[in-house]
Write a structure and sequence with these properties.
Elements lengths: L3 E6 L3 E6 L2 E6 L2 H13 L7 E5 L2 E5 L4 E2 L11 H15 L11 H17 L5 H11 L9 E3 L8 E4 L2 E5 L6 E3 L1 H9 L6 H8 L5 H21 L10 H10 L2
Antiparallel strand pairs: 1-2, 2-3, 3-5, 4-5, 6-8, 7-10, 8-9
Helix pairs in contact: 2-6, 3-4, 3-7, 4-7, 4-8, 5-7, 7-8
Length: 248
């Protein structure tokens, strides 16, 4: 019998691996159903869905290796990163999924609330938080919604050599800002942005991608702290925020 491996677990979601099958258990049953629908709609390689009985989604393992992890140089080639960018373009050019994305006003309100929490809890020096809040403002503009993955971090993109083999974890897929996906893909690996954009093609806005680096890091840090993760690990969110200060 295969052993059960706990891949990730927190109060909202747990992922277990049994052999070549992953079981995703979500506190919100609707997330499992939406993730299955998103993978069925996405015109890029995704895990095979074995079965879905909300709140559990069973998927097959994706061949290959992830592009990398935060805090370590990526072992993937420039061509593999470009392939990830090309896949993002294919997704963004696809028809929108038939459920709503997050309103811009909600994102702005969340950003203000999270900045206040970071200041109140002395997570970073006030000047770091305020400077990144100023940078983040460039992302808070109207956009033409596209089909976004919503959590396109490099650990969710699998490659074999120079070829993309699959993208996992579609629970946040929705209509959204294309630059958000590109920012999440390169968060903590800004040196790979040129490779990603070479595959993505025209239309990317580097200033908005940089703004999303700051916005994402500001809004994600409290959740990570409260769920047992370390946003102060090398290359993680707090490092990203400090790096913006070094650019001034």
């Amino acid at each position: 019998m295969d052993e059960v491996e706990v891949v990730v677990a927190h109060s909202q979601r747990a992922t277990l691996r049994v052999g070549d099958m992953f079981l995703k258990v979500d506190g919100d049953p609707g997330h499992a159903e939406r993730e299955a629908r998103a993978m069925a709609l996405a015109p890029v390689p995704t895990p095979a869905i074995l079965w879905c009985e909300p709140p559990v989604l069973a998927i097959a393992a994706v061949p290959g290796q992830a592009l990398g992890v935060l805090g370590e140089p990526s072992p993937a080639s420039s061509a593999a990163w470009a392939a990830a960018g090309a896949a993002a373009r294919t997704l963004h050019d696809a028809p929108l999924p038939p459920w709503p994305g997050r309103p811009l006003d909600d994102i702005r309100a969340e950003l203000d609330a999270e900045c206040a929490w970071l200041l109140d809890h002395n997570v970073l020096p006030p000047e770091v938080i305020r400077h990144n809040r100023e940078i983040a403002e460039a992302a808070l503009r109207p956009w033409s919604p596209v089909f976004v993955h919503g959590d396109l971090q490099l650990t969710h993109v699998f490659v074999d050599g120079d070829e993309l083999t699959g993208i996992i974890d579609w629970s946040e897929a929705a209509p959204g800002d294309a630059m958000f996906d590109l920012a999440i893909l390169t968060l903590g690996h800004e040196e790979r942005l040129d490779d990603v954009l070479a595959g993505y093609g025209p239309g990317a806005d580097r200033a908005v991608i940089r703004a999303w680096w700051s916005l994402r890091s500001l809004t994600a840090s409290r959740w990570l702290i409260e769920h047992g993760f370390d946003p102060d690990a090398p290359g993680a969110e707090l490092d990203v925020l400090r790096a913006r200060m070094r650019e001034t």
